[in-house]
Amino acid sequence: WVISLTLLCVVAASAQVFVPGKCPKPAVQENFDVTRYIGKWHEIQKLPNVFQRGECGTATYNLKAPGVVGVLNSELLADGSINSITGSAKVKDPSEPAKLEVSFYESSPPGPYWVLSSDYEGHSLVYGCTDYGLFHMEFAWILSRQPTLPEETIEELHSIMTAYGISVHKLTSTNQDEAFCTAMNQ
């Protein structure tokens, strides 16, 4: 119990989003087609987390095998260096292909990566949540094929989140300014 409370305090102090109660169970994208989802996505907004500290965030997905997606996440750190990590995402249940589990280290457990909404060519809304007793920890990303996304699309995605009890108030915008992010494109 003491270790759990200590961990909770450390993670909460790191701007991780912990919420009282159990994880919501939002509906995911129907008839999700992972082959249309592969390619590069730009991070527009996210819930703060301990493993992303930079700007200009991108996620690039490639099909490794049926139901298995290769993941390359990259970001520009404050010192001008590029931080990247590779992993894989797997469809947990073929009847719900929009519910994936992503892992970046063999020694760490996979985390939920649920595609709530995507038109494959413009936007994607991704959500993940893990229960920890009296609290749950949420992750969310609004992604775009381009470094920008129309405000009305962002508002529509916020409405989806709000309808499932996912707070949009803690979402932070990711700097995707072309000049600022030049190093990511070299």
UniProtKB/TrEMBL annotation:
Subcellular location: Secreted
A cellular-component GO term for this protein: extracellular region
Signal peptide residue numbers: 1-15
Entry GO MF terms: lipid binding
InterPro entries per record: ApoD_vertbrte (IPR026222), ApolipopD (IPR002969), Calycin (IPR012674), Lipocalin_ApoD (IPR022271), Lipocalin_CS (IPR022272), Lipocln_cytosolic_FA-bd_dom (IPR000566)
GO terms of biological process kind: brain development; lipid metabolic process; lipid transport; response to reactive oxygen species; tissue regeneration
Cross-referenced SUPFAM superfamilies: Lipocalins
Superkingdom of source: Eukaryota
Keywords recorded for this protein, A-Z: Disulfide bond, Glycoprotein, Lipid-binding, Pyrrolidone carboxylic acid, Secreted, Signal, Transport
Lipocalin/cytosolic fatty-acid binding domain location: 32-176
Keyword Metal-binding: no
Family note: Belongs to the calycin superfamily. Lipocalin family.
The protein, known as: Apolipoprotein D
Lineage of the species this protein comes from: Eukaryota, Metazoa, Chordata, Craniata, Vertebrata
Gene that encodes it: apoda.2
